[in-house]
Amino acid sequence: MAHLLSTSCYLKLSCSSSRRSYSPTLNGCPTTFSSFFTLQTSKSSFRRVIFREERLKGSFVVRATAVPVSQVAPTQSSSNSRQNSDESPKPRRVMVIGGDGYCGWATALHLSNKGYEVAIVDNLIRRLFDHQLGLDSLTPISSIHNRIRCWKSVTGKTIELYIGDICDFEFLSETFKSFEPDAVVHFGEQRSAPYSMIDRSRALFTQHNNVIGTLNVLFAIKEFREQCHLVKLGTMGEYGTPNIDIEEGYITITHNGRTDTLPYPKQASSFYHLSKVHDSNNIAFTCKAWGIRATDLNQGVVYGVRTDETEMHQELCNRFDYDGVFGTALNRFCVQAAVGHPLTVYGKGGQTRGYLDIRDTVQCVELAIANPARPGEFRVFNQFTEQFSVNELASLVTKAGEKLGLDVKTISVPNPRVEAEEHYYNAKHTKLIELGLKPHLLSDSLLDSLLNFAIKYKDRVDTKQIMPNVSWKKIGAKPKTVAA
User: Fold this and answer.
1) Which of 6, 139, 167, 417 has the most CB atoms at less than 10 Å from its CB?
2) Catalytic-labelled residue, pool 12, 157, 232, 276
3) Reported pTM
C-alpha cells in the first residue's frame, strides 16, 4: 500500500501512562501496524480505559493518507432530491467514519461504486475488541489496507484512508480540512449493547467514545464545513418497547387542551442505547442552534453479509459476527444451526424488533445522502423493513435448516438482558420508502443463502462464544473469554 501512504499528511492519535507492546491478531495470526503508522498518545482518561489491558510500548505514529481521488459522483436528477436555494450543491465527497466496520465497510464500497468520492476514517478499534475478548468474525477479514488496495485493483476506484480517533479533535480537524466532505456518514461508535454492559470501564468507554466522538463531528462540521450533511446511524433501541405505536422521531400529543409535536420519548435499555439517545439530543440541539443539517437513521437489527460490492472479491468480504457480544439474532441462529448447536432464544422469545438486510442499509444511507436535510433540519428515519419476534426468527431458521437436511433444535436460555419478553410493538417506517427504498425482504432463498454461508465457514466457529455471557444484572462480571 505504498501508494496509499506516500503523502505528507500526518495525523495524531493519543494515549498515555504505562505502555507495553500491542500486536493484534487477524484471523489468528499476529500482525503489526508499525509499517503503516505511528501512534502518539493523549492524556485523556478515555485512552487509559481503552488500553488498560493492552498498554503500548513506546509511541507509534499514525500516518494518514491524502490520496488523489478522481471519481466524481454522477449528477442527481432533481426528482431524486429536494434542492432549495439555501442548500449546498449535491454531495460528491462522502466521509465514512467507522468505515472498517460491518455497516461502514459495505457502505463505503457501495458509495464508491456509485461514483462518490469516499474517505474512510477509522481507528481500527473494532479489531482490538476481538483481540481482547478472544473473538473472531466467521468470515476471514483482510486488513483495511489490503481491502482498499483490492478495491482499487478490482474497480479502479480509490478510497482515501485516515487512521485515527475522532475523539481526538486535532486529528478530526485535520481530516476535515484535508478531505472537505460534503456529507459525513457516522458509523464510528461502539455498537454493542452487551459490550457496554460488561463492566464499568467498557460502559465508560462506550459513552465517552460515542457521545464525545459525535460532539467532535458536530463541532468539525460547524467550524470547517457548515453545509456538510451529517448522516448519523442511530438505533431503534432508543425507543424501547412502548405500549403505543412508535413514530419516526416525533409524536404529536394533546395535553390539557394544548397540542404540540415533540421528540418521541426514549426508553433506552443499555449504556450503548443511552449513548445513542445522548447523540440524538446533541444533534437536534446543534441543528437548532447552529443550522446544521442532519439525518438520524434509527436502524433496526441488520442481518446478512453480502452486497454487490463485497461479492466482487474474497478480500472485500464483510464481517459476520455470531458471538454473544457482537452477534445479532438472525446471524447467530444461522451459525448455530450450521454447527448443530440449539438456537438460543432468550427468555420467552417474544421480544420483537425491526430487521433489515445489509443491502438495505447501504441503500438507505445512499438515499439519505442524495436527499439531504435542509439547513437547521434534524430528520429522523426509522431504518428497517420488517418486524420479527425472536421466536419467529427461530421458527424461520428451523424450517430453512430442515430443507437443507439440518437437525435444528431450539432452547430457551435465561435472558441476560433486562427487557420485556412479551410486548406490543408497531413501529412506523415510511419515510425511506417514500424516498425510493426498495426492500430486500427476508425470504426462504435468503435464509438458504445465509445458512449455506454459515455452513461454508463452520470450521471457523468457536462454539465457546455462542452462549450469552454478559449479564445486565451482574455488572463487573467479565465474559469468560477475557483473561484475568
Assistant:
1) 167
2) 276
3) 0.83
Distance, CA of 94 to chain centre: 16
- pLDDT for residue 91: 72
What secondary structure does DSSP assign to 165-190, as a single string?
-TTSHHHHHHHHHHH--SEEEE--S-
Say if CB 189 and CB 275 are below 8 A apart: yes
Residue ranges per structural domain of the chain: 93-465
259 in catalytic set: no
H/E element, 287: helix 271-290
Is 272 known to be catalytic? yes
Q: Does the annotation mark 276 as catalytic?
A: yes
Condensed to tens digits (0 to 9), the pLDDT of residues 234-288 reads 999 999 999 999 999 999 999 999 999 999 999 999 999 999 999 999 999 999 9
Q: Hey, how many other C-beta atoms are within 10 angstroms of the C-beta on 284?
A: 17
What is the pLDDT at residue 475? 76
* List 195, 272, 322, 355, catalytic entry: 272
Radius of gyration of the chain (CA): 22
CA angle 318, 321, 324 (to 5 degrees): 170
The residue type found at 458 is K
- Name which of 83, 64, 198 is nearest 135 in CA terms: 198
| Distance (Å, whole) CA 367 – CA 83 | 14
The single residue listed with the C-alpha cell 452477534 is: 327
468-484 burial, b at 16+ Cβ within 10 Å, e below that, comes to bbbbbeeeeeebebeee
- pLDDT tens digit sequence for 111-127: 999 999 999 999 999 99
Q: Is pLDDT above 70 for 37?
A: no
Calpha distance 274→282 (Å, rounded): 12
CATH architecture of 93-465: 3-Layer(aba) Sandwich (3.40)
Angle between helices 102-113 and 358-370 (to 10 degrees): 60
Q: Where are the alpha helices (DSSP H) in 291-357?
A: 329-339
